Structure formats: C-alpha cells, structure tokens
Recover the amino acids of this structure.
C-alpha cells in the first residue's frame, strides 16, 4: 500500500526553465514531508522539507508547496541547471516513534538539457 | 568525515547463499536504518535501530536479520538469499532528536542473486 505517490517517472526540462515535480499522498495523518535527491551510484541526500503548518518552504532555487486539502505537494526548481539532473524522491515519516522511518515515492528522474 | 560507509559495494550471490552487508557511521547518530531500492518502488524500510541494542522491523523484513553491534555499526544479514532480494541496499543514520526525518545515506550496496 503505497501512501506516497509520484506518478511521473521522468521529466525533461531545458536549462534555465522551471522544473515542477509532483507528489500525492493518501494518508491525511502525514504532517511532514521531505524531498531527497539522488545521483547515480550515490545515496540519496536531503534536499528540502515542509511541515503541514506551512504551505510553502523555499531554499534558494528550490521551493516546495503543500496543498493539504488536495493531499498534494510539489517541488519547483528555478532555474533548472544541468547539475539538477538526478532522481528526486518525495517522502513522509511513518506515524510511529521514529521520524527516520520514511515512506518514499517511486521517484522522478529529472533530465536538464542544455 | 566519511559519514555512512557501506561494504561491499557490489556482490553477486547464488540462491541459498548467505552474506552480511556492513554499515558504519561516524556522526555519533543514535538511529540507523536499512532500506532497499527497487525499480518503480522507491526506497522501502527493511529494519531500523533506534539506539544501540535495539532493532525493529520495517516494511519488508522477511528474509533479513540485523545486528546493532555498537553505536557506529549496523549490519544486515541474508541467511538464504533469493532472487527477490536482488536490489540496491542503502544504510542510513539520523540523530534521534532531529525530529525532521532527515537521513544520511551511504552510497549503497548492489546485490544480485542468481
């Protein structure tokens, strides 16, 4: 039962344009969300997070938007750069005593073309 | 700092063979995790350890055992490998009081079971 879903397996965007990655969740009890970035042959690295008490969190070129009523969040990358080419995972902590027990989406492969 | 170190990086096993994946972290983190990544599935939690001497099952624990040898080390053992265990395995750690779900991952161990 996948409670965090990324329905777009891949995204191609031109350098300098905006990348928009989408993530949907089914469990209304989730109250914290994270995005991880993964390059080939490396482990995922934390990118940005958002608490359910906010609807937007920004960190440099990366902004995450949360729409609780739609159970939807999105990651915006502006402007996209070639180094942003990676797989991006959306994740949420399971509702237990350990915040590191994450449920991950399937990931979206982003390719930024020159 | 090395962060999270996993060995081996690659391994090929025959069905029924056993092996242990090793993981060590040098960030003085209390919590450690083993995830597996499969195509189209994202990362799924196998086992985790909230602190030295404690372990607990995650989402997909069948066929695996773990040992939290000390605060630094958390190993994953496959007693009788099966082709369904072909995957990329990631060890991760987090500060127990972080309450953010931010994990620090190793580079991964690619396991093929023939």
């Amino acid at each position: 039962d996948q409670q965090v879903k990324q329905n777009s397996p891949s995204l191609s965007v031109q350098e300098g344009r905006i990348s928009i990655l989408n993530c949907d969740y089914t469990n209304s009890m989730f109250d914290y969300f994270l995005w991880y970035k993964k390059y080939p042959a490396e482990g995922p690295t934390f990118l940005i997070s958002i608490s359910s008490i906010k609807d937007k969190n920004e960190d440099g070129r990366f902004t995450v938007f949360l729409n609780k009523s739609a159970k939807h969040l999105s990651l915006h990358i502006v402007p996209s750069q070639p180094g942003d080419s990676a797989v991006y995972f959306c994740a949420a902590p399971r509702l237990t005593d350990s915040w590191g027990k994450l449920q991950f989406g399937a990931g979206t492969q982003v390719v930024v073309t020159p | 700092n090395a962060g999270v170190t996993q060995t081996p990086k690659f391994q090929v096993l025959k069905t029924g063979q056993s092996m242990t994946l090793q993981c060590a972290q040098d960030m003085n983190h209390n919590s450690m995790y083993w995830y597996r990544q499969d195509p189209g599935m994202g990362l799924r939690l196998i086992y985790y350890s909230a602190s030295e001497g404690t372990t607990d099952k995650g989402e997909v624990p069948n066929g695996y055992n773990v040992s939290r040898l000390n605060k630094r080390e958390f190993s994953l053992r496959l007693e009788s490998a099966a082709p369904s265990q072909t995957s990329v395995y990631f060890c991760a750690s987090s500060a127990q009081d972080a309450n953010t779900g931010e994990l620090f991952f190793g580079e991964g161990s690619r396991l093929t079971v023939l």
Remarks:
- The mean pLDDT of chain B is 93.
- The interface with chain A takes residues 4, 31, 33, 40-45, 48, 50, 58-59, 90, 92, 94, 98-108 of chain B (CB under 8 Å).
- Chain B has no helices and eleven strands.
- Residues 39 and 87 of chain B are 9 Å apart (CA to CA).
